[in-house]
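Hi support team,

I'm filing this because I wasn't sure whether my run with LLP finished correctly. The job status page said complete, but I'd like someone to confirm that the output block is well-formed before I use it downstream. Pasting the exact inputs I used:
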Amino acid sequence: MHEFRYVNGRLHCEGIAVEKLVRRYGTPLYVYSQRTIEGHFQRLDAALAPVDHLVCFAVKANSNLAILRALANCGSGFDIVSAGELRRVADAGGDPGKCVFAGVGKTEEEIALALRLGIYCFNVESEPELARINRVAGRLRKQAPVAVRVNPNVDAGTHAKITTGTYENKFGIAFEQVGGVYARARRLKNLRLRGLQMHIGSQLTEVKPFALAVRKVAPLAAELHSQYGFDFFSIGGGLGIVYRPALASGAAAWWRKPSARGILTPSSYAAAVLPYLQPLGLRLLIEPGRFIVGNAGLLVTRVEYVKRTGRKNFVIVDAAMNDLIRPAFYDSYHEIAPLRRKGGAVVASDVVGPICESGDYFCKDRPLPKVGEGDLLALLSAGAYGSVMGSNYNSRGFPPEILVNGNRAAVVRERQPVEKIWELESIPAWLRRAGSRRSPRRR
Ligand code: LLP
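And here is everything the job wrote out:
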């Protein structure tokens, strides 16, 4: 479900033609639909209504302040993994009291900040981490709320780089060991055992692995709840979205209803997990990232050249792997749609960026409408793990981000001027010989 569609042959985001945004802000350009983000949040929230619950948006998926604020306004909590993310949430007007802090490597400073801001809970990944949180809490004279992340050893059947719930992964504490860990944690007097957490992987497109994991872990949650008086059970994030169109014909099929293709929906997800959770009488937490923002954003790029080699049709665009790394990193599929709907011939094309690496591509041999220099293309479903995974590789500045709400659009991140890329760099004195150029920072 999303708010991108063709109106009179022009791709629109809600009430605005994306081309119009390009005229104003140039390319590459990220465009987000606020209504789509809110709609996803609300549908998930409503599906979980039968139980006391809190949806904690996984900030790592998209941490733009405006998006965090829109979600905070909807009542969202947040799943954070660093002091930086926590500070962003607070700056955006989110409630630290609704934040859960995950991650295997929390530093003392991060733990102290989280305690000072009063987060909801630490999701703890190891015993040394429990000991460290206890120590820092003691120093600050606080009680630290903690939940252990249980690794249920369930294969989520997703991409190897984003699966987390098996014993091959660095995450969580093995299912069999969790009981002992809580028993020892109880003796640490600055901790409050508040819940149990798990997360089995990302981009799961079927409900089955969720149901298997919840069925396996729910009895453990019930047992620990009765022993320690827990508040909550978090079943993590990982709800997948539709990246591939039903037809390999460019843009046409992108907005079919996901449910029509048997994909995971808020209601099928809720129907799969709630029967195991309802009897527990615990508060349910979930930590979706991609599901909320993935289909709510696109990256617009301009065709610079079309290069035919006899073997290949390379469409060279002005966006690159530094703007959207998912195809290069995970071989992931992002649908590519022209901003002006095109009929006619399709050509098997490689859409590639200007970076000097063969991995800098968005698709290979994909049938796409014929395009030429100056044409505008949208890389769809780029709202999650898009801009946040960007880099300045090849000294390319970050693209601007635009948030659309109905007929309004606002720049929610400006294009990064290239000089800002090396702003924190300097040339040491011994390299600055007399007569040579002065330090660029004193120019
Ligand atoms: N909770 C925990 C503990 C996580 O590790 C993650 C994601 C989430 C929640 C949110 O997962 P989501 O609902 O967004 O699937 N960069 C990769 C995805 C990495 C996911 C890492 N952990 C990608 O572009 O596909």
